[in-house]
Amino acid sequence: MRIPKSLSEVLVKDYIQINKIRSAEYDNPFTRTIDLLCIFNDRKDVLKQKPSELAVDLSHLLVEPSATLKSQYFTINGKKYGIVNHINDLDAGQYMSFTTYLKGFEDNPNIHIDEMPDILASVIFPVDKNNKVLAIEPSYFRKLADDIRNHMTIEQAYPIAVFFCLISQQLTKLTADFLKV
């Protein structure tokens, strides 16, 4: 049975499910364990196990990932990417997409996890071997969001999402204050 040893082995798509389990209330902690194991294994295989075989510590999967950004450049599914250095590096369309995904952040503090692939696709650029930004094709954002969901680890993705969510909150407040003047 597959059990990730750390969050460095957990993909974004899996962490989105883990986060829902983490915030859910369970009458029986054993049910939480089964739900967690089913993220990484076929449900039928998990349910065939003896209870003693399922008595595993999965607490390392329920912790919040580190928000420390380790690098501005990284590889997802064999392609090299970089994070914008400054909010002005985004074009208006990217900024609109980014802020639209984060619209409900105050009402849903998990929005940065639930919408992580789409949020990150708005602030990540393809780069060449010299870290120069490459041209973006129209289908770029959907393909990148899918690659983030299916191939990027939560250890890579989480710090970027947290960083840009905090910026978004500050920018939204500054914009609102500016418009009042």
Briefly, what is this?
The chain is 50% helix and 7% strand. By secondary structure, the protein is mainly α. The radius of gyration is 19 Å and the shape is elongated.
The general outline is elongated
* Helix-strand category: mainly alpha
Share of helical residues: 40-55%
Quick one: biggest sheet? 3 strands, antiparallel
Main sheet strand line-up: 1-2-3
Runs with pLDDT <50, length 5+? Answer: none
Relative strand content? 5-15%
Helices, by number, come to 8
- Give the C-alpha Rg: 19 Å
Number of strands: 3
Intertermini distance: 60 Å
Mean pLDDT across every amino acid position: 84
Element-level helix/strand string: HHHEEHHHEHH
Task: Report on this structure.
There is one protein chain. Strand 1 (73-76) and strand 2 (79-83) form a beta hairpin. This protein is mainly α. The radius of gyration is 19 Å and the shape is elongated. The mean pLDDT is 84. Helices cover 50% and strands 7% of the residues. The protein has a 3-stranded antiparallel sheet. The longest helix is centred in the C-terminal third of the chain and has 27 residues, at 154-180.
